[in-house]
Amino acid sequence: MVQSLTADLLGDLLAPLAIEAAPASVAATPTTAILPLEEPPVGPADPLALAVLDGNSSSVQPVGSTSDWFNALCKKDSGVLYEDPFIQIGIKGEWRGPQGRVVIFLGNKHTVALTSVRAIVLPPSHLRMQLPPVPELIPPRAQVQCPLDVLSLHASREVPVLDFSYNNSAVTVGSKLRLPVVMSKFLQPAPISSADFVAIWRSLAGPPNKLQEVVRGVNPMLISEMTELFNMFHICVSPGLDPNPNNIVAATTFFSESGATLCLVRVETDPADRTQLRLTVASTDASTTFELKEYIKEQLVDISSITANPATLGFTGPAAALAGLL
Questions:
Q1: Nearest residue to 250 via CA among 297, 310, 201
Q2: CB neighbour list of residue 168: distance below 8 Å, 6 or more residues apart
Q3: What is the mean pLDDT of residues 259-270?
Q4: Is residue 256 packed enough to be buried (19+ CB in 10 Å), middle (13-18) or exposed (0-12)?
Q5: Cα 164 → chain centroid
Q6: Is the pLDDT of residue 241 over 70?
Q7: Taking the CB of residue 185, how many other CB atoms lie within 10 A of it?
Q8: How confident is the model at residue 27 (pLDDT cuts 50, 70, 90)?
Q9: Where are the beta strands (DSSP E) in 153-271?
Q10: Can you tell which superkingdom this protein's organism belongs to (predicted)?
């Protein structure tokens, strides 16, 4: 299918005429499609306009931070994954239980065709992924859409890699990009009552199904900010379930090929030092428990943080109403 798109299409994949211009049903896109771009209008420069390059470059670098783009896409389902002066790569994902579809957008910003285009997905063992062949040539100022099907086999924090390269008529450019197919994409918020939470929590007595860790190096944030972050990753916080206002209790369901696993989470913070907390995660599957605990840590803890000795931290223990139950 060929569509006529405006000049800022590749300038900002978050704009309505970019990713939102994809077919209404992502799942209905069986193969790649090449979409031509209109020539930019003559007039004042638009900061979102597609950059047209007539020269060649012997050293092609991204125009932004690939880490920042990746991290942003871990929290949302569409946006820019990579961009350099010649090409922009964007993605749009849809997720249902253990399955997902990620449409990869390859947009040629150049006035010359990009040749020898190559895109291969390197999946980790916990994901089954299928990407159809990508056209070896992307015409000038055109966009290719490539649907990537995903199936979660079991819990893991590893992410797939997109091994991508092209030739811009002067030099071959290549990059290995992390794809934001992260654990939270297979989580679904699970509202839960206090009685159900306590009953399940007590039935999961300890390791390996219930794991606890006291950590430091946490990015300081208010309970309201941590709640917003959890909800962003599809971990449903239940306000008031824990009577201690410095604690968070939450639940989520992880989906894989083998079924759904309910996961319970409790975070105890130290109001005197918000750079440390006690994190407990419980589920009926030991592997899911461990991977979710580590995944939550990665979202809360600075990369340079280390595990602390619980004896050195200022936690006062569970609130009296939950003492002996949690």
A1: 201
A2: 56, 57, 60, 86, 110, 112, 114
A3: 96
A4: buried
A5: 19
A6: yes
A7: 20
A8: very low
A9: 161-167, 172-178, 187-189, 210-216, 236-237, 247-256, 259-270
A10: Eukaryota
